[in-house]
Amino acid sequence: MRLGTTERFAPARRWAGRRGRLSSALPRLPRTRRGQRRLVQALMLACAVALAPMAWLHASADARVRTAADAPAAQVAVVFGAGLWQGRPSPYLAHRLDAAAELYRSGKVRVVLVTGDNSRVDYDEPDTMRTYLTARGVPDTRVVSDYAGFDTWDSCVRAKRIFGVDRAVLVSQGFHIRRAIALCRSAGIDVYGVGADDVHDVTWYYGGIREVFAAGKALLDAVFEPDPHFLGPRESGVTEALADDLTAAGGAG
After folding, report:
1. Which of 44, 74, 96, 207 is the most exposed place for a label (fewest CB within 10 A)?
2. Dihedral over alpha carbons 136, 138, 143, 148 (to 10 degrees)
3. Domain residues of the chain, as ranges?
């Protein structure tokens, strides 16, 4: 059976109608040179605003990134949590802890403050980090746990206000260390950062991309200085660990 003219051209009409509705729904580009110039300027401004937090991170932190070998001496190293896998440190967290243990063995730091998430009974980053460090030669009395380091800003503020840390070497991955440095400096700590060595795998690149978005929150934290999720009373763990270290050094002498 041959189709009539109406039936044969019906699909084309329907497609033309859909295309017309789609075109009308899309924003129209300006037709005048002045309008086009304003559009380009608006896009450039949006890009500048989006990239400003990353520019701030690099300006605040680039000069303070070190390796474990050339990091300046400090009394305290701060290690940020990076997740657990089946009750053990994730590979990235293990690399951070290895770097911290190296700093301790080389005499660059005397105490290690491990800060992470312990918001659930069955998830304890700080004590898992402590166990890992003690198995690699860091005495238990030289490891201090912060159980409420729920994010980087919280860890920095609590290191300063709860544990009394004024100067420290921070340990994290290379893609995160600048944000940690910038935030801890904003919290009032004189810091340098050590980026742990890692294979540049998919997770590493994901972390780098994530930092672009996390930089915006970091800048807001630095500007508005919100209280951490949990503050609590002052703790003497770092002070006592340093005193214990001096006592042990005196006894050895």
Report:
1. 44
2. -20
3. 61-252
